[in-house]
Amino acid sequence: MKTIALKFGGTSMADANQIRKVTAIIKQSQHRRYIVVSAPGKRSSDDIKVTDLLYQCYNAAVKGEDFEPSLLQIRERFEEIIRDLELEFDIDSEIETIRKHLQGDPEKDYMASRGEYLSAKVFACHLGYKFIDAADYIHFNENGSLNFQKTKEDLKKVLTVTFRAVLPGFYGSLPGGKIHTFSRGGSDVTGSIVARAVHADIYENWTDVSGMLAADPRIVENPRQIRIITYRELRELSYMGATVLHEDAVFPVQQANISINIRNTNDPEDPGTLIIPHLPENADPGSVTGIAGHKGFSSILIEKDLMNSEVGFTAKVLNIIASHGLSFEHLPSGIDTMSLILRTEDLAPERDQVLAEIQEAVQPDTLYVEDGIALIAVVGQGMAYYKGIAAKIFQAITDANVNIRMIDQGSSELNIIIGVAEEDYEAAIRSIYAEVIEKK
Ligand code: ASP
Q: Which atom of ligand 1 is nearest to the CA of 38?
């Protein structure tokens, strides 16, 4: 029998109507056995997530202010779900436990975790499945990092003897037993860990969009959906701002070659986006998977005659950058020129000092900073070793009447990064999209 691990996000668990959709999805396949849930999220754009209400309670309590109005809202959210689903569930005693905690010495992570805790408990009651508390099986180290080995072993033990279960996402516990959470959106990580522990055939991550889009819909009208993407491509696109998953949700399943399928609870027939370990053999050669980008970069330009023959020139410059705790994004260079691309906001506080030190260390002929650069990443593993893609991209940028400030191609030929002026960013993306994705 196959094993599918699933995670349902906040909008999927937002109210009884959504929970009924989730139930239908689970019941559709007997292989869908291990379910991780988020706390109830927003029912509409002006709604408040239960997790945010819990933080509000905590903040009020530590300031000695009245937390009851927020706690009442939390109670009402769950009460409504329980009533609409006609469940026998004692929410009053659960709320009372939270109230007692708030009246004592409240802990932030414990409070934040209660949304997932209650969501999973209520949902397990609705499905008639076992509720397994993440606090007992997801282990963090003292420093807050995940104790992956112990977590994997313990979860595996309990899940191999539990045929179907519901688990709360987002939290686990520290060595002494205190509750600790992942960063926001962390239920994705729990889902991934569960998928790994049970050696799932697939990890389905159900959300409110049908997967990843090939470009930002605020820039490109109706961009195509990405059907299949490799982990490496996902990382490149996410780094440049196209996010569908918590960053840390990738490593547990990637290590075990388990694919992730991003699906839409509101459109369950849509196959969504499949994130796979390796490019399939029949992949379309020369295809571009997606385009992402970011504004807000600066370039430090350094010119010096005979730079190329000066041993250690680059090392001296990079040492200065590192000694200020800065990381650079790209390092395009010529024979007698080099430039370093950094995030403007990172450079800003160190800027004068960094420039003074570079001046002193390498005595360049020219040294200046250019701001207002946007980077565009064109990503596709199928681009590697394929002729003509770069030409098409540059032609598209030229057609948009945009000047290219920088070009960088990763050594694996998985991506081409182009730097343009911020004001040209949108036009360049639209034109590249039309040329290399829409026309394909
Ligand atoms: N409920 C948490 C949050 O709002 C975690 C999650 O939904 O993944 O961030």
A: 7
